[in-house]
UniProtKB/TrEMBL annotation:
InterPro entries the UniProt entry points to: Mur-like_cat_sf, Mur_ligase_C, Mur_ligase_C_dom_sf, Mur_ligase_cen, MurE/MurF_N, UDP-N-AcMur-Glu-dNH2Pim_ligase
Main location: cytoplasm
Record PTM text: Carboxylation is probably crucial for Mg(2+) binding and, consequently, for the gamma-phosphate positioning of ATP.
Its biological purpose: Catalyzes the addition of L-lysine to the nucleotide precursor UDP-N-acetylmuramoyl-L-alanyl-D-glutamate (UMAG) in the biosynthesis of bacterial cell-wall peptidoglycan.
Short sequence motif named L-lysine recognition motif, residue ranges: 429-432
Protein name, as recorded: UDP-N-acetylmuramoyl-L-alanyl-D-glutamate--L-lysine ligase
One Gene Ontology biological process: cell division
């Protein structure tokens, strides 16, 4: 049973130079529960005070049975003793891992980071490894959290990378449920907020980086964003890097600082990483690239890459040329986890990811795509691909941009629409406390209206319906940004929303 003594807590905190003061005396005191939300406290609990915390929460935790609290400051409104630390997030992560007996030791873990492609690559990898390990692969992704094989072991995720205490709770469940591996996404925020502090991965994959998540509540600068993402490599035994992205020099040096070159693998479309003057370990080329799928040739160039024995041709079941790179990352990662070539082949050919390049065909209208693209990098990639595949069709984009975060996305979405679309219906996408019409106007500021017809339709479903029903054979309609999200975030509330995919699926039935 999970538990932790005061002795162990203080030792860990001292070792990591986190302990300021402890008001507890009895070192054998044993905590049977840990929590950071007062609503979840039951008996013999160690309670963490973190984030936008109010003293009343601690009072509530005390009345529910908390024995002590960990905090960066002392609270005088309670009688239970405090353990005062310099960093609550780091402390919570280390103590959560210890409380559950370090579940990561029983669960080989593959972690993906990158501005784009984390979810897709994680799904490709799970699809392959599930074939090798009898569907026993746990998954912590933006979409779902999978900790076992039963229906109740799959839940919708609320964050890309969970809060540390939840992360180790889920890892512990996965181990208890007999899962063989964990595939997880690690966001830059996870490092910024120390949600994965102290966690080491068997394989860490760096997919790409482009400006995103910079602004209030996220990263102050691009350098900070890059630094946070690179922490994944510092904490991985084997590093896998994409040579085709930007900042490869920084990324490679970050990997090399803590990992032997023998355990670093680089993949890319060209034979040499020009910025570094070294060969890629794996080179891939596109053999086919259509609106429905891709075919790639994968070739190992270096000795340690050749040892994995995965040279060959692979079909990739999700369209979009950028998904070829995601598939290659998953193939190499899975080979490192001993997947066979057959499992890689079948896994890549038969993966679907909810809300990522989902295709809906109509009989007498255009072809509709529902995709999660919501910044410049992703919308550019998707539209570039769709335009190359349907050069004569009219391309209509329905999108909005989130309120209260990712402000720079508005310019990026406008630019990508301007480059490739013929028409845009701007609408709401999680406006939070902002006016979606004002957000749409910011996107529209970066679109040349002489080139692209732009209008604002407040209701997202109305905008989608108009675009889909107006489309003609050969046209492409891209509904971008929300995928299967079943809510719109408005003024702190999750307001129920049918979801882009459900709306489009229903519409095409009658067309
Ligand atoms: C800025 C930030 O990182 N905030 C995160 C943080 O919030 P917080 O610590 O301030 O917690 P809070 O929810 O404000 O509440 C304060 C504390 O009071 C406690 N409480 C609250 C009410 C009560 O009655 N009793 C009580 O004890 C809460 O449990 C909490 O511990 O911890 C919360 C979970 O415990 C997160 O939900 C929340 O993420 C915010 C909402 C969020 O969405 N962040 C985004 C930017 C994010 O992290 N995104 C990345 C993906 C980015 C990417 O795509 O790359 C992600 O990993 O998801
Ligand atoms: N390697 C890639 N390069 C550029 N764009 C990509 C790549 N992979 C996916 N995309 C685009 O980004 C969107 C999101 O993909 P995915 O969910 O796999 O990425 P993510 O890193 O998990 O994203 P997010 O951080 O937004 O959750 C896709 O729907 C697609 O439009």
């Amino acid at each position: 049973m999970a538990q932790i003594t005061l002795d162990e807590i203080l030792t860990i905190l001292k070792e990591h130079h986190l302990l300021v003061d402890s008001q507890l005396g009895d070192l054998s005191l044993n905590f049977k529960q840990i929590a950071y939300n007062s609503k979840l406290v039951s008996g013999k609990c160690l309670f963490f005070c973190k984030g936008n915390f109010k003293p009343d929460y601690l009072l509530a935790a005390q009345s529910q049975g908390a024995l002590a609290y960990v905090s960066e400051k002392q609270y005088d409104n309670v009688v239970i003793p405090g353990i005062i630390v310099t960093n609550i997030q780091k402390s919570m992560s280390l103590l959560s891992a210890a409380f559950f007996g370090y579940p990561q030791n029983g669960l080989p873990t593959i972690a993906f980071t990158g501005t784009k492609g984390k979810t897709t690559s994680a799904y490709f990898t799970k699809s392959i490894l599930d074939r090798t390990y009898g569907k026993k692969v746990a998954l912590f992704s933006t979409i779902n959290t999978v900790v076992g094989t039963g229906a109740n072991d799959v839940v919708k995720s609320s964050l890309t990378t969970p809060e540390s205490l939840d992360l180790f709770t889920n890892m512990n469940s996965a181990v208890k449920n007999g899962m063989s591996h964990l595939v997880m996404e690690v966001s830059s925020q996870a490092y910024k907020k120390n949600r994965v502090y102290g966690l080491h991965y068997d394989v860490g994959v760096f997919l790409n980086i482009s400006p995103d998540h910079i602004g209030r509540n996220e990263h102050p600068t691009f350098a900070d964003y890059l630094h946070c993402k690179e922490q994944l490599l510092v904490n991985a035994n084997i590093c896998l890097l994409n040579a085709d992205g930007t900042h490869i020099k920084d990324i490679y040096y970050a990997a090399k600082a803590t990992t032997q070159p023998e355990n670093i693998y680089i993949y890319g479309r060209t034979a040499v990483v020009s910025e570094l003057g070294i060969p890629v370990d794996f080179q891939y080329t596109s053999l086919e690239d259509s609106l429905t799928n891709n075919k790639i040739q994968l070739t190992a160039n270096t000795d340690h890459a050749k040892r994995l024995g995965i040279d060959g041709q692979y079909e990739v079941g999700i369209p979009g040329d950028y998904n070829e790179g995601n598939a290659v990352a998953a193939a190499i990662t899975s080979a490192l986890m001993n997947a066979s070539v057959d499992d890689i082949r079948n896994g890549l050919a038969h993966t679907t990811v909810p809300g990522r390049m989902e295709i809906y065909r109509s009989k007498s209208h255009g072809t509709m795509y529902v995709d999660y693209a919501h910044n410049y990098g992703s919308l550019h990639s998707v539209l570039n691909f769709l335009k190359s595949q349907a050069p004569k069709g009219k391309i209509t984009v329905i999108t909005g941009s989130t309120g209260d975060k990712g402000i720079d996305r508005r310019e990026g979405l406008g630019k990508a629409i301007n480059e490739f679309a013929d028409q845009a219906y701007l609408t709401a996408d999680d406006p939070a406390t902002e006016d979606p019409k004002v957000i749409a106007a910011k996107i529209a500021d970066h679109i040349d209206k002489k080139k692209v017809a732009v209008s604002y339709i407040a209701d997202r479903k109305t905008a989608i319906t108009k675009a889909v029903t107006e489309s003609q054979p050969g046209d492409v309609v891209l509904v971008a940004g929300k995928g299967h999200d079943a809510f719109q975030k408005i003024n702190g509330q999750n307001v129920p929303y049918e979801g882009d995919a459900a709306i489009v699926a229903n519409l095409v039935k009658g067309l």
